[in-house]
Amino acid sequence: MTPPVGNPLLAALAEALPPEALGTADVELALHRYDAAPFSEAGRPAVVVRPETVEQVRHVLRVARALGVPVVPQGARTGLAGGANAVDGCVVLSMVRMNRILEIDRANRLVRCEPGVITADLAAAVAGEGLCYPPDPASWETCTIGGNIATGAGGLCCVKYGVTADYVLGLTVVLADGEVLRVGRDTVKGVAGYDLTRLFVGSEGTLGVIVEATLALRPPRPPELALLASFASARDAGAAAGAIIREGHVPSALELMDRATTEAVAALGHPLLAGAGGATLIVASDAPDAAARVRAMAELCREAKALSVAVAEDDERCRQVLDARRMVMPALGAVAKGLPGAMTAFVEDVAVPRDRLADLVERVEEIAGEYDLYIATVGHAGDGNLHPTVLFDRADRSAVRRAREAYDAIMAAGLELGGTITGEHGVGVLKREWLARELPPRGLRLQRDIKRLLDPDGLLNPGKVLA
Amino acid sequence: MTPPVGNPLLAALAEALPPEALGTADVELALHRYDAAPFSEAGRPAVVVRPETVEQVRHVLRVARALGVPVVPQGARTGLAGGANAVDGCVVLSMVRMNRILEIDRANRLVRCEPGVITADLAAAVAGEGLCYPPDPASWETCTIGGNIATGAGGLCCVKYGVTADYVLGLTVVLADGEVLRVGRDTVKGVAGYDLTRLFVGSEGTLGVIVEATLALRPPRPPELALLASFASARDAGAAAGAIIREGHVPSALELMDRATTEAVAALGHPLLAGAGGATLIVASDAPDAAARVRAMAELCREAKALSVAVAEDDERCRQVLDARRMVMPALGAVAKGLPGAMTAFVEDVAVPRDRLADLVERVEEIAGEYDLYIATVGHAGDGNLHPTVLFDRADRSAVRRAREAYDAIMAAGLELGGTITGEHGVGVLKREWLARELPPRGLRLQRDIKRLLDPDGLLNPGKVLA
């Protein structure tokens, strides 16, 4: 690293941080500019700091405040809204070395951990104690639990098990002034004072830096059974998903793939999708009566004009069915490779009331036509949460412009259908103008007031969430 | 009512409220001074206003602000912390006439309603549409959904189904300045901006007045099976409850009754408690494999040295088992009648980590001895949430003093055991000094800052939650 001599920020940081915690090499700074969102603006950090203790985090925030330097907390940078993008001259506060699991408490079904723990590592560790941490964002093998909390991450199984926010009992946060604040509790229930825990969940590092979390756990999930149904159209698949919900089923996954996604996964060789139709539904159950549930849900698919229904009643067939969903991103990657140009995938995230799902899928198909773009939509049908993925040539200025316009059109469609601009990815820099369209003016003002209350100097992840 | 002539508050209110919405009769004012908490200070309201529209609520808040008059929102006044108690000269804003169910949406499994709807009415209405609103606070047949939301109410089934807060998707709130704010959403998922919905849930009317709620619903609950186990001590019963949780069961009720409660319910004639021991556990399951679950949990009770275990595998026996829990308050009422003096019941509410439950029960038994009081404890063992009920003669000054001291000792014990001063009843006026002991100074400061942000003049339910 560059010696801190002559740079007051580095010199001040070095007073309480070891040299190996401070990164200033060009490649390191470049590497920490962006998360996984395309289109998103990012500045160049002054330094990447990797603290290992709460005291070190406090020191960073005190120094930043004293010098008026912005601080951008980062986890694994798998976010899809630019929420972890650097701003010019900032301290990137990379939490990845604070990755200890502090306690797994079987009697109280909870875990205490630091924010840098990889979600899959956390899940594996608690599984080793006979417990389960259900939230499963797509990036769960690389993303951090701190990032999950900061973005309010979701996943496939939330249709039954809820989102990250539902598991956060308590947090320790370092505030903008370097003070440590403990919010929430270690008990299952508690209503002592205003709920500050939920205020920090999903706040994307703009209100404080999460340095520890207490998370609720569940008993292990029973084995899943699943079905895959092909439909002529997303409308039929949406009707089947609606019937499943209306009939009172609580599937552990209820995923919809549109025509483009179905074709891409079929092209990658998934046996159940050969010759499939215009949409696919993948439904799983881990209920104690999963076999009966899956059969009943298969019948509802048939009643909703499914072209074919494959029911997987053993582990192997079940894995095959669920693989169709897991193959979506690799399949779109293969499609991108086959297209001319420097293709980039842009994963969108909108949520609508469950019964408007098919409307949104159809609207996205129209948008693909209007903007002459390849868009493949997959989504959590049980939650009304869709992810249209736009593939575009980032070297083609017209394609980039059209992709951005299509992105805006998709969000507008989500709002028109009574939905929200983000179901689980967050606002970041990408959607802050859209947040102002979704929220009423008074709500937006209150959001700003809360930001000002907790970060009066505006140094915590500036420009994220709120414009 | 008294004509408003000469009273600027009444005159201003009458400008946009019909005469029948304004109550000033002495009996009416007296009736609206207190909720169901004993020991709690209360003032005398200037007027009881019963709005029927959002516009009327806005008018009340605008008038109150212009004249500097405090506003105390009330539901059914079943609260147990004095959170709805009047303050001198206030407007009591009784929301009971805003009691319409606006929409039950089967496709999206949600309901929109006004705050004055009785919880049981809401549950019945959605059940009529084949859906379920699970939260079941003890007062559910009389309390209002607005009060449930404002206090963050719990209940018996939250060990499996969660608390009121978990069902609130969105709220419409009238702020202190009379502006209407819509927070949250109609979608299952959503992370657009800071979570302001949870900020209002449990805020006890101190941040705004809830005028509409969008609540998530579930499929109907399957029929329950249950068991009742008698133990020599609360420690043994607590060990059985711990084993049930540790073995990965998710019961739909897991209730513990201490010696005094067990004896009281036995004395009222419950057949399964005749000759029972020092503690009782009531466990229910509504899982699809409920019969197997209940048998397995019964075996865990036997392994934990249960003196007897009654497994109810049909509806009638199940009702009998669950009746033991429902009989607790009538049984304590009967005990109170049998004691000399003007007996009053004081229901406490503390929550501790699940594995400290037996410690808390034992500590409460010690406290009963130390203060020479009758205390019967019943609680949600699966949540670590206990309700010690203190019976004392309100005409006996020494007994009143001892009851208050015992109350403080119980809260201190809860905090010592790593718990919280309130699991589901709220802070109100009763526990605001204790809130300051539970929260760290910085947390308390932030709570006050948020209060000031939303209610700069301090007119919304003043003196509640925060001292």
TrEMBL record, chains A, B:
Domain FAD-binding PCMH-type: from-to ranges? 41-220
InterPro entries, per database record: FAD-bd_oxidored_4_C, FAD-bd_PCMH, FAD-bd_PCMH-like_sf, FAD-bd_PCMH_sub2, FAD-linked_Oxase-like_C, FAD-linked_OxidoTrans_Type4, Oxid_FAD_bind_N, Vanillyl_alc_oxidase_C-sub2
Asked if the Swiss-Prot or TrEMBL record annotates the protein with the keyword Cell wall biogenesis/degradation, the reply is: no
Could you give a GO molecular-function term held by this entry?
oxidoreductase activity
Claim: Oxidoreductase is one of the keywords in the record = yes
Q: Which cofactor does it need?
A: FAD
Sorted keywords for this record are: FAD, Flavoprotein, Oxidoreductase
User: Where do the TM regions start and end?
Assistant: none
Superkingdom classification of source: Bacteria
The protein's matches in Gene3D superfamilies, at most eight in alphabetical order, are given as: 3.30.465.10, 3.30.70.2740, Vanillyl-alcohol Oxidase, Chain A, domain 4
Family label: Belongs to the FAD-binding oxidoreductase/transferase type 4 family.
Q: Which PANTHER family match?
A: GLYCOLATE OXIDASE SUBUNIT GLCD
This one is known as FAD-binding protein
